[in-house]
Structure prediction request, 80 residues.
Amino acid sequence: MARKPLNVGFTGDIDPETGVVEKAKSTAAKVKDEAGMVAAHAVDHPAATASVAASIGVAAFLLGYLLGVSSRPHDRQRWL
Prediction:
């Protein structure tokens, strides 16, 4: 149902839509708008986008490395 103002033939108040489906649609529209804004920013600032992507990659690599090192058995000697 469209949320356009009714100009002719209606004299009552319009009740706000408060159901779960309406809220989900509203949230999905907001998320879509935010994704569009992020994409537009990425196009406008490619160097910053690449820097952020590289930083996230380095952080993910370090996290994986630290998790891998911490999960090795501690009863063996390090160099054998």
User: Anything to note?
Assistant: The two ends are 70 Å apart (CA to CA). Residues 21-70 form one domain. The mean pLDDT is 83.
